[in-house]
Structures are given as structure tokens and as C-alpha cells.
Amino acid sequence: MRDIHRLLQIGGFALVASTLTLTAGEDVRISRTSGIELAFQNNRELAIAELAVARAKADARWSGQLDNPELELSISDDGVGLDENEGVFEVAFAQRFPITSRLKDEKRLRAQQILLAEAEIAERRRELAGQVDLAVIELLATRSLLERQRELLALNAKIVAFLDEQAAQGVVSKLDATQAKLTGRSLKQRITALEAQEVVQAAEVKQLIGLAPETHIDLDNGLRLPADGPGIRTAYEGIFRQRPDLVLALAKIGEADAALAFEQAKRWEDVSLRVFAERERAVDEPTGLERNSFLGIGVSIPLPLRQRNQAGIEKAEIDRVDAEKTVDATRFHIRSEYEEAFRHRLANWKLAREASGEVLTLADENFEEYEKAYREGQASFLQVQRAQEQQLELQTAALEAVAEYYRSDARVRFVTGDYPGLIRTGANVGK
């Protein structure tokens, strides 16, 4: 449990303190990593969720205290009896004391609940980081495709200008120029659709990060396929140290242990210690009315003959077993998740390399050769158009394949919990 405490409180579940604080409307340049850091700092929902830690600390601060003492006052006389002015006045002070370690166990339970709340917040951060990472990748993919479509539109504009000139001279048919213009219109429609998609995706990124809607986002680095495939596998123990859901499961074991000890301590109710002072007036023959004072102490001990908190103890024992099984299930789930994510990323890298390799180079060269042949009168415009369509299809497929690789890379990152400011790997909680 000490390792968990070091991970949660020393190891980095605090908000990322950075110089990236933003004002509304300014331009912001982010990458996948800096976007996550900004989200940790600025996301409103995460800030609200972190109040759970403050609540748990407040509970811990005021736990483990004795019940309030009781002040008792009583007065009696014989006015309804012999009416001889006899009476008794009593003042008592009572305090309940536990005879078990209940107060200490309660403080331990509240301390474990702080760790539990911090681990739950860390898991919320991991989920937020995964959303931000994927949203940034989607925006990068759309902008990459937009850039390529605009390049093709500019190329199409040159072709249209050339055909208009040739048609005016009677060298080519006006139908060819018209067809080229239609192709340009189609490209413009695709660009318009992508621009609308970009606006929606940028809004999602800004909402996740916590930026003002009018903020303009620039992105560092495009979606370039790495020259080398994904590296060697990450050791499971390293992943365990970075997964907040496993830390959360381990924290639940600590909480279950503390809760069981607390319930066992409640088998015996508190003992009440009573200190009292009494002033008495009584008739004593033959001397008459006399006054006397008494000072005493009393103890009240409940007898656990019927209720010994059996239900609370049994439930706490079940919760302890549940926590152990949850840890085992979480470890198994993490291993399975990582295996699937790693294989998927490797497969997508191979597909993207194939789509971005020789076939794309051949398509570019094929289009350039057909365009040149058309200008020299050695090819028809239909052939040029078909070459351009093939080039567009293959370039789009290549960009989508690279984007899919990065989506799978984001999945690996989410599975491993490899985000800044989440968990440092100094303590070994995975074993």
C-alpha cells in the first residue's frame, strides 16, 4: 500500500503545471502530447471530478474522533410526597470511549479512501488523454487529406487553363475542357465537405482540451509513417505500473482490508464513563433537615450478547474477496488488451507502408506521364482523367492507411497508459 501511496500522491496524479495557460481567441500550437497536458490543466469536467479527492480528505481530517460528551442535569424534591423540603440535585458528565481500535481503524479506512479517490481521478485522466489523443489524430488526418485535395485542385486548375487555351485555338475539344472543369467542381465539393468535417473535429479537440471556441488550433507534425515498424513489446510489469485502473484495483484491496478491520472493531460498542456530583437535602431524626454532597464515578459496559456486527463483518469479507478477484481480472484484461493493440498496430503499419510505397510512386509517375503525353497529343483526355482518378484514389487510401496506423498507435498508448503526468514508474505495484 505504501507503493500505491507513492504513486498516487508523489508520482504524478497532480495537474500538469505548465506555461500553456491560454486566453480566449489566441492561436495555439499543440501536438498529441502537449494537447493532453493542456487537457489535464484546463478540462472543466476533470476539475469537477477532482473535488472527490477533496471530499475524501475532508472525511479523513475529521474521522477517528470521540463522540461528543454528554452533560446531565437532574433535580428532584418531595413536594408531591411528605413535602418536608427534601430533594436531590445532580450534575453528571458522561463520555463514551471505544475499547477496541475503532477510531484508529476509521482513520486508516479514510486514508485508504483518499488513495481510492485519487486512483479514480487518475483513471478519468487516462480516459480523457485517450480521447484527446484520438481527436488530435483525426484532426491531423482530415487536414492532411485537405492539403492533398487542395494540391490536386491547384493541379486541376492548371489543366483547365491549358485546355481552355487549347480549345480556343481549336486544338482540343471543348468537351475536354468542360470535363476537366467538372472534375475540379467535384474536388471542390470534397474540399468543402472536408472543411466542414475539420470544423467539427477542431471544435471537439477544443472542447476536450478546455479551449475557448474561438481559439485557432495549429498542429505540430503531420501524419508521417515511421520508417521502422513498432518497437519491441513493453514488459507487462511496466504497463501495470502505468495503468490507473490497476492501481485503483489495488487500492480497493487496501480499502477492503481497512474496512474489514473497522467492522471487526465495531463488534464491541463503546464503554460510557460517567462522573457525577450530587447535592442532597434530607430529614434525619432527631436533628431535622440536613444537607449532604456526593461525588462519584460510574461505568456502563454494553454486553454483546445479540448484536456483534456480524452482517458488517461478513460484507467486508466479501468485499475483500471481490477486490482480490478484481485485481486478477484487471491484470488479465490489461495483458489481453495490450496483445490485441500491439498486433493491430503492427498490422496497420505494414498496410500503411504498402499503401504509401511503390504503388503510390507509380501512380504519381503514371499521371505525370499521361499529362505530358496529352500535351504532346499522344494520349486522350479520358486517359489523363483516369490516371488522375487512380492517383487520387491511391493517395486517399494511403493517407487513410497512415491515419489508421496512428489510430492504432493511440490505442496502444491508451492501453499502456503512456501519458505525461499520469503515473511515474518509480514504484512497483504490478507485482
Write up what this structure looks like.
- This protein has helices spanning 2-10, 32-42, 44-49, 51-61, 102-168, 174-209, 236-242, 244-265, 310-355, 358-375, 381-416, and strands spanning 27-30, 70-77, 87-97, 216-219, 271-284, 288-300.
- Mean pLDDT is 84; it is low at 4-24 and 424-431.
- The relative contact order is 0.16.
- It is built from eleven helices and six strands.
- The longest helix has 67 residues, at 102-168.
- With 431 residues, it is an alpha+beta fold.
- α5 runs antiparallel to α11.
- The protein has a single domain, classed as Outer membrane efflux proteins (OEP), CATH 1.20.1600.10.
What string, H for helix and E for strand, traces the elements in order? HEHHHEEHHEHHEEHHH
**Largest sheet entry:** 4 strands, antiparallel
Coarse morphology: elongated
Proportion in β-strands:
5-15%
Distance between the termini: 12 Å
Report the uncertain regions. 4-24, 424-431
Residue-averaged pLDDT, rounded?
A: 84
State the domain count. 1
> What's the alpha carbon Rg, rounded to whole Å?
38 Å
Helix content: 55-70%
- The CATH class is identified as Mainly Alpha
Task: Give a count of the beta strands, DSSP E runs of length 2 or more.
Answer: 6
What class would the helix/strand composition place it in?
alpha+beta
User: Strand order of the main beta sheet, please?
Assistant: 2-3-5-6
Going by CATH, what is the homologous superfamily?
Outer membrane efflux proteins (OEP)
The assigned CATH architecture is Up-down Bundle
Instruction: Please name the CATH topology.
Output: Outer membrane efflux proteins (OEP)
Count of helical regions: 11
